[in-house]
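pls ignore typos typing on phone
zinc ion + seq
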Amino acid sequence: MDKRRFRTRPPEGWEPPERLETWPEVPVAPLPVGRAFGVSTDASGWLVYSWDENQEAAEFEELPDELVLRGLLKLDPTDTESVLGFLDEFGVIQARYLPSELAPLDLPLLRLGQPPAGARNHLYDAQAYLATARALSKHWAAHCEGREVAPAWREEGCIFPELVMADEMAWNYFSRCLNHGLRVFTMRLQYMGHSVPHPDLYQALCFQLMNLIIDELPPRKCANENCPQYFVRQQGRSQHGQSRTRAVKYCQPSCASAKGQRDRRRRKIRNGSDVGR
Ligand SMILES: [Zn+2]
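k done
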């Protein structure tokens, strides 16, 4: 056989892969995230969590549904109090942010150096992880709406090298940052409760987004024009634990009723002015 010909020409029946593929191809059950009793910063901005007496997470809890779209996109990662509140409510982030392995964010130098005893990373690290998670989420929403994806990263402070196709680069960041967060979830054997991975908040957000991608249900914007919410399934009024996905225009029932009331009010004003004419 002519080996060279075989290498340059694909075997018969071979089709080029689609641009986006996932493995696995079915959603996976989520794992709970570790939460502390509280989180604060020391005078230099290092993150200090309060743990139980064994220095372990106070509790493990699953993220609320679609937090990666709903709550995360409302968060301002540059606001210290909001970030601390988010970590407090949903889970810890204790890793250092490595721009060379994740997205090239321009982080302040203050976070370099050794954290003091009891701290493992700086507020800037947590902010960078949350900004990256937001960029991932916004990238996916933009892609599903047929928009450019690079702005999602630029808006979160990500640097693009000159002379590159920005959207191609953004896809590079997307797969790199998402897969980085998914590393903790591997096939494994668990013997008597040992070897169970404990994802941090960033990893759990990546996991949530990955399941949405696998589900092939595009995020959509709430049809209530006063609500900036992206969502996949409507919350509330769900039956048998299933949230509605088909023909749903509003992120929650109260948005539908708010919109209905506003439309009625508008019609009233319009009809009123017709009468006066
Ligand atoms: Zn809404």
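The helical segments are 3-8, 70-74, 80-90, 123-144, 150-154, 166-182, 201-215, 253-276. The pocket of zinc ion is lined by residues 222, 224, 227, 229, 250-252, 255 (CB under 6 Å). more later
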